[in-house]
Model the fold of this input.
Amino acid sequence: MNYLAHGYRFLDSPYFLAGTATPDWLSVIDRKVRVRSRAATGLVDSDDEPTRQIASGIVQHLADDQWFHQTRVFAETSLRFAVELRDRLPGDEGFRPSFLGHILVEVLIDATLIERDRSLADRYYDAMDNVSGVKVQQVVNAIAKVPTDRLDGWISRFRQVKFLYDYLDDAKLLFRMEQVMARVGLPPLGEHLETWLPSARRIVADRCDELLTKPLEIIVA
Done:
């Protein structure tokens, strides 16, 4: 899941919402800084309300990612994208199509949610404006084995840039994907995906509700 899919149910709880975004924020600024569910669970009963909410949001994110990535619909959709992307990225039989297919399913879920109700993104950012980046960074440093001094600054930039809205426009979305490719050290995408993205959007839009539904067998387990 991406930011909005993780958080749209928690827009009335800003610090919980920030917790649901924290693992993804950390993957952007420093992948060595990891928040584990066991360590975060140790703070869910904190006497400090923001600390408790941030830690609970982190636990929620990790639990949701676990079931989401196990679903058949996610596996089918990301594999379909990987195969189609492999045909559109010349000479690329390696990791990039699979990685990009995975990321695009998640990003296009957020795009679908915003297309259905733009106020979700508006409220998401409004809620984030009520969060102290310093506080989130303090909680992360209490959980993670490797500390960070970069999270507060990134949260400020995240709120300023508001890149979730870019997912609605193909050219802007491709620009964001190029940034991801550069960040993880993969080759640029070029102009090979412009004609493909509209069909990918339709596929995810058609399957969005299914993608966001936790399967019964995973609930029972």
Notes: The chain has a mean pLDDT of 95. The chain has twelve helices and no strands. The CA atoms of residues 41 and 55 lie 7 Å apart.
